[in-house]
TrEMBL record:
Residues 30-196 form the NAD-dependent epimerase/dehydratase domain. InterPro entries: Epimerase_deHydtase (IPR001509), NAD(P)-bd_dom_sf (IPR036291). SUPFAM superfamilies: NAD(P)-binding Rossmann-fold domains. This is NAD-dependent epimerase/dehydratase family protein.
Length: 338
């Protein structure tokens, strides 16, 4: 895989299962937060799935679109775009009414020192969106950060595990979930809350960060000794297929890969591919932020792209000097300070 175009064609290819699900999906799709890290490829995958079944259903991307190049790119792909500041209530209320809403907007990095904005984006705006789209089905992105750190031998937190978010970002994400669930109860709105842990792209993500450290002979931090990851294309597909699994009250669904991965093992895998010797700092803890996504695997099957495939793809991308977004995940953070 040598170019962004090749990457996105691979990442946005709809599976047979997604195409079959989209045959059952009525109404247009509004993607709120279409300008984020995952929004563009999710929107493109949805458009390809609708095109594959010969449907005229629309995909409409909503974002501030400070990147005008992205806005034009999505429009050339056949995706309608709307520039909107969600904190402008008049602009929010003027968004089109649709049957299906993918809610991906939020704020994470830069929370420390700007907590008020993070809470507004992550806990206030979702309520306004839920009221606006009370007659729609809504899939809302959340995070496994709402769970506490758990013993790595316990196979991660499933959907029934008590939440205990660490830090204001994670607390605001739980606020988003609680507000959305309130409106799901109040208005009988069908929702699914999509608790995602670490989507992987060749341009950003946990694996890329570790790969770059190994490639550039930097020590790998073992502060968070174990992680979960999932290929972004698989995460996008799970999200789109979740539109057929919304419920009232809101359904909770964990989403990540099936493995609990050792950070040390990941680094050693990249070292072997690069012909490098890897060094480490810090020591692994027996507790980590881990997500048990077996329920999503029961619904949608295992991810199509395996961990070894992701490592191979990223190793080649890094070796070839592939473009990156330079947006660290800060996955090593144990105190919730983002």
């Amino acid at each position: 895989m040598k170019s962004i175009e090749q990457l996105e064609m691979f990442m946005t290819e709809p599976s047979y299962a997604l195409i079959e699900d989209f045959k059952k999906l009525d109404g247009d799709l509004l993607v709120i937060g279409a300008g984020g890290k995952m929004g563009p490829t999710l929107s493109k995958m949805a458009k390809r799935a609708f095109d594959e079944i010969g449907s005229s259903q629309r995909v409409i991307g909503v974002s501030r679109f400070s990147n005008h190049v992205l806005k034009e790119e999505l429009e050339q792909y056949g995706i309608e775009t709307i520039s909107c500041d969600l904190l402008d209530d008049e602009a929010l209320q003027n968004l089109p009414d649709v049957k299906n809403v993918m809610y991906m907007a939020g704020n994470k990095f830069g929370t420390t020192g700007n907590e008020h904005f993070t809470w507004a984006m992550n806990a206030y705006i979702p309520g306004r969106v839920a009221e606006k789209y009370k007659n729609s089905r809504i899939v809302a992105f959340s995070t496994g950060n709402v769970y506490p750190l758990t013993d790595v031998s316990k196979n991660g937190c499933d959907e029934l595990h008590p939440v205990n978010p660490v830090g204001e970002y994670a607390q605001s994400c739980l606020g988003r979930e609680r507000v959305l669930t309130h409106f799901s109860h109040k208005n009988n709105t069908e929702m699914l809350i999509f608790r995602l842990n670490y989507a992987i792209d060749l341009r950003y993500g946990v694996l890329l960060e570790i790969a770059n450290q190994v490639f550039h002979d930097q020590p790998v931090d073992l502060t968070m000794g174990n992680v979960n990851v999932i290929w972004q294309g698989d995460a996008n597909e799970y999200a789109l297929r979740s539109l057929l699994h919304t419920e009232s009250p809101a359904k909770i669904l964990n989403v990540t890969g099936p493995e609990t991965l050792s950070t040390r093992w990941i680094a050693e895998q990249f070292a072997a591919r690069f012909g490098k010797t890897v060094s480490f700092i810090s020591e692994e803890s027996n507790r980590a932020l881990l997500n048990n996504a077996s329920e999503s695997h029961k619904l949608f099957g295992y991810p199509r792209v395996s961990v070894k495939e992701m490592i191979d793809l990223i190793a080649d991308w890094v070796s070839d000097g592939g473009y990156t977004l330079n947006k660290p995940t800060h996955f090593q953070e144990r105190e919730g300070a983002f």
